[in-house]
Amino acid sequence: MKLEGTADFLYEPRDVWTALHDIDILIKTIPGCKSMVPDGEGGYLVAVSLGVAAIKGDYEGKVRVTDVEFPHHYVLDGEGAGTPGYINMKVDCYLDPVERGTLMRWSCDAEVGGLIAGIGGRVMTGISKYMAKQFFKALNDEMKNLFDEKQIESAQG
Amino acid sequence: MKKPIEIAGVTKHIGVPRKRTEDPQILMGQAKYVDDIKLPGTLEVAFFRSTHAHARIKNLKLDAAKAHPDCHHIFTNNEFSAGATTFFPGTRGTLHPVLMPFLAKDKVRFVGEIIAAVVAPSRYIAEDIVDLIEVDYETLPAYNDVEDAMQPDAALIHEDLESNIYYADSFSNGDVDKAFAEADLVVSEKIATGRTSAAPMETRGVMATWGWDDTLTVWSSTQMPYPLRTSIAVNLGIPEQTIRVVAPTVGGGFGQKAHFFPDEFILPWIAKEIKKPVKWVEDRREHLLSAAHAKQCTIYMSIAFNKDGTMVGMKIKNIGDSGAYSQYPWSGLIESVAANNGAPGAFTVPNISFETVICLTNKMSTGAYRGVGWSAGCYAREMVMTKAARLLNLDIVDIYRKNFIRHDEFPYTTSTNQTYDSGDYHKVLEKCLELSDYASTKKQSRATEDGKLKGVGIAFFVEQTNWGSRSAEESGFPATLHDTTTVEMDPTGKVTVRSGQFSHGQGLKTTLAQVAAETLGVPFEDVVVLDGDTATGAYGMGTFASRSAVIGGGSVIRAATDVRNKLLTIAAHVMEANAADLEIDEGKIYVKGSPDRSMTVAEIAYITFYDRFARPDEDEVEPTLSATRHYDPPAAYANGSHAVHIELDPLTGKLDIKRIVAVEDCGNMINPKVVDGQMRGGASQGLGMGLLESLEYDESGQLKNASFMDFLIPNATTLPDIECAHIVTPSPYTEGGFKGAGEAAMLSVHIALSNALADALSEYDGPLVPMVTPIGPQQVMDLINNVNQPQAR
What we know:
The structure holds two protein chains of two kinds. In chain A, strand 5 and strand 6 (about 85-100) form a beta hairpin. Chain A has helices at about 15-20, 25-30, 115-120, 120-155, and strands at about 1-10, 35-40, 45-50, 55-70, 75-80, 85-100, 100-115. Chain A has a single domain, classed as START domain (Alpha-D-Glucose-1,6-Bisphosphate, Chain A, domain 4, 2-Layer Sandwich), CATH 3.30.530.20. Chain A is of the alpha+beta class. The relative contact order of chain A is 0.21. Chain A has a seven-stranded antiparallel sheet with strand order 1-7-6-5-4-3-2. Chain B has a seven-stranded mixed sheet with strand order 3-5-1-13-10-11-12. In chain B, helix 6 crosses helix 7, helix 15 (about 510-520) runs parallel beside helix 16 and helix 16 (about 550-575) crosses helix 17. Chain B has 20 helices and 31 strands. By secondary structure, chain B is an alpha+beta fold. The longest helix of chain B is centred in the C-terminal third of the chain and has 28 residues, at about 550-575. Among the domains of chain B are: about 25-30 and about 480-630, Aldehyde Oxidoreductase, domain 4; about 200-290, Aldehyde Oxidoreductase, domain 4 (2-Layer Sandwich); about 405-465 and about 635-790, Aldehyde oxidase/xanthine dehydrogenase, molybdopterin binding domain (Aldehyde Oxidoreductase, domain 4). The interface between A and B is medium-sized, with 14 and 18 residues.
């Protein structure tokens, strides 16, 4: 399965990068994320619980960030498995500065197997896009909290 | 060859459109399917199946599952490695067996392959336990296209083979190169037929119980109870006479249930191990993932023509997509080998050469499904013929007429060494043309007022029926297949037919009773047919391959004739008449010409069993009224024609099916209503293959449409009423002059449909002729759009 999309952020690439690599923010923003723990090898062990149609279930997996060109590009390598099946994916992310902040361009190449492939295939693209939208919206909200608080703090300081 | 018994086309019982005796219980919900069999203390089984298409099993973690409080047992290949299903075939080339293990050992080769069997109090709990099993896989490259899997550097799906090709042969007759060199036109195409599933209404299912007396009873939704019994005995090392296999009511098989599947061995083995009844009923997803697939071939077809449409030569390369294993008992050759051996169809093809290649892919294996071999093979030939007709400014009908084997040429041996017994192809074609208003429709404008395009298509087929040893051999499988029937009359004159065949929708309980009633001269109501149970039948191969009316019917005729002769001998003694002067009619035995000198069949039967003073001396005539006879007839070749009217929306590619006309010649019909039912059912499935059905795998070998939400089959809104008609040319080779009728209807509806599409698009630049099944909206739009692209011209 191949997916791609863009997301707009009101902050500059450096800040977006920071948010995208902040475990606490990610736990809050990744739909269904239960936990995210460093695996000691530069990656993270992730537990996700999803409640949507044919992909409903608990998944555990690993993510790792590679090909890092701070703050413009990185690749998110992920693999996860749960009772409904498994997902292996590679997400290629570019952060470009634009007038309003940052434009993120991402493209995802995912291999999906098991029940979710056979039964959920038809709705998979829709669900994935919906979840991506949820994620980026939540991320923007979190960044607002984070950076606006900082600005307030620095103004007060 | 022994001269067969002739039966006139329509008699008191033969050729009579009787209602099927099996229907009331099915329609009223009283019939018992495997899932309706209830035994106290039954445990249920759920399977842990592979989610990867091609991977090594590195670590199978069962601890969490075993710790579940309701987990009775978990079985893996470590506990049960009893072997794999096999049976016959030997063929011209070298066939590597490529067996499917009952439970995967070190490696999985398709999504859905069974790795472990969980036994629990209910299916729900068993599935919960299955969810607790984990496995570490090392994934390997997966192939879903034969032409990728065939590459020399492709990863081996079976590492004991040198490549993913496990069978190849070739054949040639005549001077093909010369014919092609001298021909006016050669049309060469690549044709791809989609992967289908028979998708019977009742999925598969198995139940097994080990008795206190060390006997095994197995209920399976199978088409072939006796071969399954033998295969269980051989694979599990259980004495065959202690095994009883019951096929209760089975809700459709269509050839798919005429295979052996791992669960048919796993369940009996578990029952034997744990001494408790166990049951597993396949859900639809499991069915689409792991019940035999069918019909997917990649065919390179070249046909050489003269200007007048005469076919002078044919060259074929048929690459069969076997899936991950060879599906037994028929093997993965069944599709392509049968297709190539039947390649000439209804036509004189003097020069022919073909290649057959069977290749493994990481998908469920392919096997038999109604019209196996011919649905794909005929499609390739006919689509090339249609394109040639367009290039030669002819109608496909002209090419049919030009190349048909004429009715005075029978018996006719084709260039692939099949001997056709009889037929009148011109007559059948003309009947179909007339009923479908073919010629007048062709003269009308294609465009309708609301922007649609009308089209009409025709197709013609010959089908080899009645798979006995000789039919099988003529299709390239030197297998031994035959059937036995026991006909018994009891002391009250009632008749029991013990059959090795099995009625699972074909109406055999009705038609075999009609044949017995006719042969014996007793009322239809006095005959009962027992089938589907090895405890009550006679050893037979089962019901598949359009064989049961011919082989089953023939063996009933033979056994019933023996009983009738015995009855007449005893009656002659009792009535002090000459046996040759006696007649039997509707249960009454009388002296020819003196109907008042009569006794009933029941009286003679009673005397036979219970009156030693009246019956002949038992040293001269044994006082039994039963006979067991075998039958293995030569092949009889049915034929027929289909016409389809469609309306195409050229903006969306959607096809509406307006009319389907079916004309068929299956020799003498035992029950025309049953034949019509077969024609309608087959036509519906043929339309499914042509219009809708394709099991789609992605590049990593995942089946993407493993539910009826996504895998489409025809339903009432897709199908128009199917108009049926018959031409009768009795087979001179078979008892009763019967030919098979079960599969025929699936041989050419998809061809007529594609021809109708080509006709609807006949005013576009082209010729636009589809070379693929199914022709869904996407394929139709591809066909339309290619012509508008400059490079396609």
